[in-house]
């Protein structure tokens, strides 16, 4: 689960740009929050990401030093990054071999500043 400031912007990032699907979205008026679940398949057989939107949050969240990043496997990291860059997505670490290894990786940033590692499978 990650907390987001603009739920629609975050859903757009994960669904439109990273090609996940919005699985479900539920409002909880008594708690003043909304939960949205995104992923590449149903919750029963796939890992999904929970986006939590607190209605009255007026400041950016501290991303914390314990959180590293979310990692996603992709089949062609160069074309994925090229497409994301054309869509205006920030790519702080361009695609290339990881330090001390051969695996191709890149990092993109979501609307709240969370780092998403792309790993070529």
Keywords:
four-stranded mixed beta sheet, 8 strands, 121 residues, 2 helices, alpha/beta
On the 0 to 100 scale, the average pLDDT is: 95
Using the CA coordinates, give the radius of gyration.
Answer: 15 Å
Strand content: 35-45%
pLDDT below 50 for ≥5 consecutive residues: which ranges? none
The helix-and-strand class reads alpha/beta
Counting DSSP H or I runs of 4 or more residues, the number of helices is: 2
Strand order of the largest sheet: 1-4-3-2
Number of DSSP E strands? 8
What is the helix content? 10-25%
H/E topology pattern = EHEEEEHEEE
* Straight-line distance between termini: 24 Å
Task: Describe the main β-sheet briefly.
Answer: 4 strands, mixed
Silhouette: globular
Walkthrough of the structure:
By secondary structure, the chain is of the alpha/beta class. It is built from two helices and eight strands; from the N terminus they run E-H-E-E-E-E-H-E-E-E. Strands 1-4-3-2 form a four-stranded mixed β-sheet, with helices on one face. A hairpin with a 4-residue loop joins strand 2 (21-28) and strand 3 (33-39). It is globular. The chain starts with a strand and ends with a strand. The mean pLDDT is 95.
């Amino acid at each position: 689960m990650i907390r987001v400031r603009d739920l629609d912007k975050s859903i757009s990032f994960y669904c439109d740009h990273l090609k996940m699907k919005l699985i479900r979205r539920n409002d909880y008026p008594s708690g003043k929050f909304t939960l949205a679940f995104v992923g590449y398949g149903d919750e029963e057989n796939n890992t999904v990401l929970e986006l939590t939107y607190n209605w009255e949050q007026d400041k950016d969240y501290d991303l914390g030093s314990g959180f590293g990043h979310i990692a996603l496997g992709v089949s062609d990291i160069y074309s994925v990054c090229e497409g994301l860059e054309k869509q205006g997505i920030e790519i702080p670490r361009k695609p290339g071999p990881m330090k001390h290894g051969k695996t191709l990786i890149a990092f993109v940033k979501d609307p709240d500043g969370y780092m998403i590692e792309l790993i070529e499978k």
